[in-house]
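In the laboratory, one determines a bound structure by crystallizing the protein with its ligand and collecting diffraction data. In a computational setting the workflow is compressed into a single prediction: the sequence and the ligand go in, and a structural description comes out. We illustrate the idea with protoporphyrin IX containing FE.
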Amino acid sequence: ALTADDKAHIQAIWPCVAAHPAELGGEALHRMFVCHPKTKTYFPGFDFHKDSAQIKAHGKKVVNALTEASHHLDNIPGALSKLSDLHAYDLRVDPGNFDHLRHHILVTMGCHFPDKLDCCTHQSMDKFLAAVGNALTSKYR
Ligand code: HEM
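The predicted complex, in C-alpha cell form:
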C-alpha cells in the first residue's frame, strides 16, 4: 500500500506531468511503441510517428486518468473503475503491457524532471503506477 511518504512524493511530482499531458503522455506512449512494438497491435490505424496528433491525444487521456487517480490515492480501483472495465472487458489488453507503459512513464519523467525524480520519488511513483496497473487488470478472468 502507499505510505504517507509515497503520497507526498506522488503529489509533489505528478502536477509537473499533469501540466503537459499531451506532450509527456505522448512521449511515454511513443517510447512504449518503439521498445515494445507488439503494443501497437492494440491501436490499429494509428499514426505511430513521434508527436503525431493521435499519440498526443491518447497520451493526454492517459495522463489525465493518472491525474484523476492521483487525487484518489486511497481508492485507486474506485477512481479507475470504468477504465478497468474498458481495459479488461472491451480492449483485453495483455496485463504485461501495463508494466511496459509504467516503465516508459518513469523514463519520460526522469528525462524531463531529473532533479525531481530522486530515488525515493522514483520508488513512490513506481508503486503508484503499479497500483494503477493492478486496478486496470483486476477484472481479468
Ligand atoms: C483507452 C488510460 C494502459 C490500450 C484508454 C483511455 C484511457 C486509458 C483514459 C481512454 C478511455 C476512453 O476513451 O473512455 C490508461 C492508463 C493506463 C493504460 C491510465 C496505464 C497507466 C494501457 C495499455 C494499453 C492500453 C498498457 C495497451 C498496450 C488502450 C487502448 C485504448 C485505451 C487500445 C482505446 C484507444 C481508442 O480506441 O481510442 N486508456 N491506459 N492502455 N487504452 Fe489505455
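The chain is about 70% helix and 0% strand. Keep in mind that any predicted model is a hypothesis to be tested, not a measurement.
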